[in-house]
Amino acid sequence: MKIKFSLKYLLLSLLLFCIEVLIATVLKNNFFVRAYLGDVIVVILLYTFVRTFIKMNSIKLIAGIFIFSCFIEFAQYFNIAEKLGFQRGSLMHIVIGNSFSWIDILCYAIGCLLLLIPVYLNRNTMSF
Predict the structure, then answer these.
(1) How many domains does the chain have?
(2) How many CA atoms does the CB half-sphere of 92 hold within 13 Å?
(3) Residue 9: which domain range?
């Protein structure tokens, strides 16, 4: 692992962030996109954001992102946003989330599996 800025991953992160914002604002009434696709995309966004600043083994990073995502999801079960004092509707309350779902964990897994496709295709470098 080494610190190395990547413009490619920064641009991908910005694009994915804009897509997430569109899902949360414009497509909020489309249940499938809001409930499932957003959770698939968020792990890909986390991957590209980390890779913007850090070059490391992609498989380890993907595994770490999946574990982190599951940790946040399980924290939602214990109402962590409220316990941290975030008001309903506040940005941090929305970012952390407020309801546990096994389906969300499945969506995170699908997003991570999608990230593994380019890693597998470029297995000589173990990076995407």
Answers:
(1) 1
(2) 9
(3) 2-67+104-121
Under the banding of pLDDT at 50, 70 and 90, the label for residue 33 is confident
Q: Identify whether 62 is part of a domain.
A: yes
Give per-residue burial for 45-79: e unless 16+ CB within 10 Å, then b. bbbbbbbbeebbebbebbeebbeebeebbebbeee
The pLDDT of 111-124, averaged and rounded, is 90
Please report whether residue 128 resides in a domain: no
Greatest extent of the chain over all pairs of C-alpha atoms, in Å: 47
For residue range 51-83, list pLDDT tens digits in order: 999 999 999 999 999 999 999 999 999 999 989
54 lies in a domain? yes
Tell whether 86 is covered by a domain: no
